[in-house]
Amino acid sequence: MSFPKGFLWGGAVAANQVEGAWNAGGKGWSVDDVATYKPNVDVKDYKAHVTVSSESVKKAMEDSDDTYYPKRRGIDFYHHYKEDLALFAEMGFKVFRLSIAWTRLFPTGEESEANAEGIAFYEDVFKEMKRLGIEPLVTLSHYEMPLALSLKYNGWTDRRVVDCFVRFSRACFEHYGKYVKYWLNFNEVDSIIRHSFITAGIIPDLCGEKGEIPCCYQALHHQFVAAGIVTKLCHEMVPDGQMGCMLTKLMTYPRTCAPEDVAATQKKNLENMFYSDVMVFGEYPRMILRDLEKRGIKIQMEPGDLEIIKEGTVDFVSFSYYMSMTESVDPNAERTPGNTVLGVKNPYLASSEWGWQVDPVGLRISLIELYDRYKKPLFIVENGIGSRDVVEEDGSIHDPYRIEYFRRHFKEMEKAIDDGVELMGYTSWAPIDLISASTSQMSKRYGFIYVDQDDLGNGTLKRSRKDSFYWYQKVIRTNGADME
Ligand code: BGP
How far apart, in Å, are the Cα atoms of 369 and each of 37, 244, 350, 372, 409? Predict the structure, then answer.
């Protein structure tokens, strides 16, 4: 068996990492607009890159020089979207995943009406996609909270943000429901524990005595409630609308077969899947609630919350997959970074320059595990490798390492499909070079399309096709039959 007919091949980006034009068209400040590029900080120390304080946010807002705030400029997709979509169409994309910047529609998050210019921008984007025959897959929230909500309410820790998000989602369904059938609620909903600011607008020093972690769980509960409400809304407002959840699939193996290592690994994997468990099964897992209780973390719930969560379960399960790691109870075990995590090194795997361990078989294991657990169609909505590329004198870009990464992962997807997994589609991260979510680097490149811009924003923004562009085009054309 090979890839099913109609398999949705494509690519994925997020508004804050590509659009730029951060203050154009009536857009308000978003949390990403204060994300800082830190050239002197080790790129493997992800925490140092994603951590903020009231002080650093204030300093960034006062800084009108955008050099060290790359997400403000992105790759200027805002003005290049026609050219970029044409390149995706040339590769044969069936689907393109993008997000809607909340602050383009609601600059502070609290306006009663959506900003007309913002509405018009995405409408044009979707019309162009339809013209090109590319199906949109839209993430409602991909690290794009209005900064005003973060400063006023400490982000999602405050219940009132649920209403703001529902108003935003309603506007999206109302205006774009005729173009968009596939929706995702929160990108990597589990990431709140790893970077609470970009995921949920939480500024740790505003959490007071309570501390950051309890704030994260409270915010998460609000996101679960919001997810339940908007899933129902999507079903009511969007013809054939489907809502998916989205998790970071952090594959963890036991470092040894010592039962203690296996037990520690099991705990880690259960914690990783807790978020999608809630959105698929419509209830908090008992063991997670018990764990929170033991840690003294109390979530404030309002009457009716659990019913909302129960009634608003998702239609499909999507996830990102980049790397795997191992777990060990040995405190001296050597560690390595992954996607905003620190895990124990696996001696059988090679790592990217950023320390992420490349593990295609782990993708197959993840697909089987998630399908067996949820029995819902799966969608891989992020997968790729960040690498430095070299532009040759003649302008060509040879990236065999990228082709190799994708080929090995696609072969494992094919095996999982052959084993019976229902896989709707695949969107690579990212089809075009963009600003890194964690380190705000431009030089950590993921694309099939090269963008001429460096970490400080120098460059012409010219788009060029890498070798991998033609390779992915062939894969799509043959629906995965030719990966050579
Ligand atoms: C995921 C995020 C993306 C993306 C990707 C790669 O966790 O959903 O936004 O950027 O990771 O991470 P990075 O950009 O840090 O290399």
Answer: 36, 17, 23, 5, 16
The pLDDT tens digits for 106-143 are 999 999 999 999 999 999 999 999 999 999 999 999 99
Taking the centre of ligand 1 as the mean of its atom positions, its distance from the CA of residue 379, in whole angstroms, is: 17
- CA torsion 118→123→126→127, rounded to 10°? -150
Q: How far apart are CA 288 and CA 341, in angstroms?
A: 20
Which positions ≥6 away from 194 have C-beta within 8 Å?
A: 50, 340, 341
Measure Cα distances from 431 to 124, 254, 296, 386, 464 in Å. 20, 33, 43, 12, 12
pLDDT exceeds cutoff 90 at 1: no
Q: At what angle do helices 77-91 and 116-132 cross, to 10 degrees?
A: 20
Residues 6 or more apart whose CB falls under 8 angstroms from that of 143 comprise 14, 16, 31, 32, 187, 198, 199, 437
Mean pLDDT of 305-328: 98
Q: Is the C-beta atom of 382 inside 6 A of ligand 1?
A: yes
Looking at this protein, which amino acid is placed at residue 381? V
272 CB under 6 A from ligand 1? no
Q: Report the C-alpha gap between 481 and 478 in whole angstroms.
A: 5
Kindly report the pTM of this predicted structure.
Answer: 0.97
Q: Which protein residue has the closest C-alpha to ligand 1 atom 15?
A: 438
Catalytic residue among 188, 327, 412, 414: 188
Q: Is 123 assigned a catalytic role? A: no
Q: What is the pLDDT of residues 21-49, one digit of tens each?
A: 999 999 999 999 999 999 999 998 888 99
Residue 19's closest CA among 78, 66, 99? Answer: 78
| Atom of ligand 1 at shortest range from CA of 441 | 14
Q: Which of 144, 382, 412, 414 is catalytic?
A: 382
Active site residue 188: yes
DSSP secondary structure, 456-479, as one string: TS-S---EEE-HHHHHHHHHHHTT
Helix, strand, coil share (%) of the chain residues, nearest 5:
45, 15, 40
- The closest residue, in CA terms, to atom 3 on ligand 1 is 437
Q: What is the pLDDT of residues 199-235, one digit of tens each?
A: 999 999 999 988 999 999 999 999 999 999 999 999 9
Specify the amino acid at residue 450. Y
* CA atoms of 263 and 238, how far apart (whole Å): 43
Q: How far, in Å, CA of 213 to CA of 219, rounded?
A: 10
Q: Which residues pair with 346 in a beta bridge?
A: none
Which ligand 1 atom is the nearest neighbour of the CA of 354?
16
Name 108's bridge partners: none
